[in-house]
Design goal:
This protein is mostly helical. The chain has 24 helices and no strands.
Length: about 450
Amino acid sequence: KQWYQRRVRGSKALDLNQKYIKAIQRRATAYEKLNKYEASIKDWTAVCLIEGPEKSMKAGYMATSDRVLKAYGDDKAKKLMASRVPRLPSHTVIKSALDNIHMRDFHSTATPESLENMGDKLYIQILADIENREYDVVPDKLDLALKEEPVKFLNQLRCLRGIFAWVMADYKTALQNFDAVIVDAKSYMRLKVQAHIHRGEVYQAKGDKNRAMADYNTAVQLDEDHPDPYLHRAQFYLSIESLGPAIKDLEKCIELDEDFPAPWTQLVYGQYQMARTMTPSLLDQVFKNLGKMQEKFKDVADIFALYGQVLQDQRQFSAAEEKFLEAQRLAPDNVTYKAHVATLKMMAENNFDSALVLLNEAHEKDPKCDFVLENLGMIYIQKQMYPQALECFKKALELVKTEAEAAHLSALYIGIQCQWEVCDEYNVKPVSIADLQDFSQMMTAPQG
């Protein structure tokens, strides 16, 4: 009742003076206490825009607005993921997930003709579909194969069904299949390892860090000579900015399989983050490792993309563009590299029109790439094309596979929607991209 009365008093005061800052603040606080986050965010946005970025930063208005935005994003993300209709994401996302494991754990020398059970026969076909990147047919084939009660490849099918459910953000189906592999006494050890790894990823996506870490640790304990558990535990450490343990796990992964590209990219990414935040002297080692990786993995596009991101962050724009273009040449179907070139155009040339063209080309080629959609939305914000920006964020929200990604995009969506409404209602200027964030901080972790 107290907060309801405060909201009413704030609204009455604003009837007399629309830009009375203290009244807007009081009403914003009341809305937050009443769990009316959208209304609270709108009021805090009004305060920040009326007062301006510098004063709002000093007075703590932006920090308060960010806190309410985070609460809204977290709440919205949980509801969104709970009601999410499973769908296959971009082929880039699927390939990235599969590139982060050793598919040899699933390989078989059998042929469909040598097998009697239809489920087992389908498993061999599914492996060929994955090899040929015919991902769209895989989930239905996996379901059909499991209904046929396979004899030889039951747990392989369960594990792959779990992986595809995971990339589709179908947490329930993923957990059911991973649990079945883990408890089945007939499961091969390496399949149990894979099940623990990917169950850990599902828990991590749901925000359950303790259970995620428990699964990663169990996977390491089950097979200390398997590279994959170290890679995925390292990715978890990177996500919580625990760089030392991440680097240690990645070095162990490389020791176990030095020809596995994924840990190399993650290692250099972690080293670079450490150089930026704690140990600048590591920068020389980062560039040495980038050069070493480039020579060792001449056909791996992610290596060149990471090299490009580091060069871009160091404001070596021409050299960065060369790396991104090489990544595009090596993997023309991966539109994230074109998105990086677009970001480069914004940073190096302040050329938002060229960036918009590139991102629209990328979106047309791969409409399911949420990374492209988010970047496209950011360009539309800069151009004050708010309806188009909101449409991009809405589409991206339908594609994300973790609660953290959903929370980030939900907060971004409501923040921009409120800014648009406030600018119109209060006749104030919008905040520019330069005020919102520095594009030099948009470096992304290697996909996985």
